[in-house]
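Regression check, 6-O-phosphono-beta-D-glucopyranose case 462:
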Amino acid sequence: MEYQFPKDFWWGSAASGPQTEGTYEGDGKGPSIWDHWYQEEPGKFFDGVGPSDTSQVYKRYREDIQLMKATGHNSFRTSIQWSRLIPEGTGEVNQSAVAFYNDYIDELIANGIEPFMNLYHFDMPMALQEKGGWLNRETVDAYVVFAKTCFTLFGDRVKKWFTHNEPIVPVEGGYLYQFHYPNEINMKQAVQVGFHENLASAQAIAAYHQMDLGGEIGIILNLTPSYPRDANNPEDVKAAAIADAFFNRSFLDPAVKGTFPEELVTIIKELDMCPDMQAEDLTTIKENTVDLLGINYYQPRRIKAKESAMDHSHGPMPDDYFDTYDMPGKKMNPYRGWEIYEKGIYDILTNTRENYGNIKCYISENGMGVEGEGRFINDQGVIEDDYRIAFVSDHLKYVHQAIQEGTNCVGYHMWTCMDNWSWTNAYKNRYGFISVDLANDAKRTIKKSGHWFKEVADQNGF
Ligand code: BG6
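Current build output:
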């Protein structure tokens, strides 16, 4: 075998509650921002498919766990939907949700799959969004109560917790670039939301450590390396460093080092957009850093010095400091419109080793969304997704290299286990090791990549 991974390497995949569970009559789930947005603007969602019609995991998790086994999982991450467990965001706990998550967790463990649980995957309970969502300090308090409730209910069995998945996305999507509810463009609000998410994470980490449940808690970040157009042009390099501070270090630095990056603080001060905070907040963030870092990697960011005119119709924007560089000849995933750059995963891992104390980390998402996979079905009804096998193995080679060089990377999770609901893209692009046939009662079939992944996991390499 050419690429042998360390003993006890985590092989598996990631998903989220809102993208997989679905909603059912009498399940007691409260509305999240996604349920609300879909009700308001169903046309925004690909083919009009909304968040209730996801892959029926709420009912079918037992069957799905068998498929996880058959695809080599020794670990699996999903999220607890806040609006399922505490339908109003605060107050009463939904006992049907407790029963569901308990059984889901127990069933995973009984099948030799370690459950990793994330607490927030873009799914603000609507009752809290109505009061401002992450803009409102009370949401931080409510989140910490929710987190403690999860630790108390499930912490005897769940030993890997994550405070957020990609916390920059609610900032970008909800308050800058309009792809998440509430669909605003307002940099000052974006800064406040980001600050509150960081604070909520630190407070949840403090609570978890205090409870002394014998597990680890971390955060999952989509680290998107920023490459300058020309590494010898100081203006390009500076622009790339600013983009990095906005989109990566805004969460990576506080999560791992307990501090915010100087470049970002300087800009926010110049703009007079410092967030509202209380005296002890920065100390809380300083003192409660993560045990473990999850890294989601899909694509790099190519940056050049600002050349285009600034658009201030909505006030200042991060893009005032850089332009996106459309690099000629880059390799693309045309369905998602994302560049494929395998070495990026190595660069991120090297960065964590060199600049972040070689923190214990794992690849928590990596994957390739493809539209119309039905055209690759063979006579046995299996999707022959050789492109996905190539994508995963090409990235794994770089993960392997980083580990050889000493990076403390302990696992690789694919996005995702089975095709799921991708927010406004709904079921347009499919990411899973397992297909879900929506026209046929969401019938599950393992793809060629799923069979391949089982071999890789069984051999601990390829
Ligand atoms: C990650 C998210 O950004 O990428 C997932 O954690 C998401 O929730 C996945 O589904 C793929 O991106 P998209 O936008 O194609 O769904």
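Comparison notes: Residues 187-211 form the longest helix (25 residues). The domain at 10-459 is CATH 3.20.20.80 (TIM Barrel). No diff flagged against the previous build.
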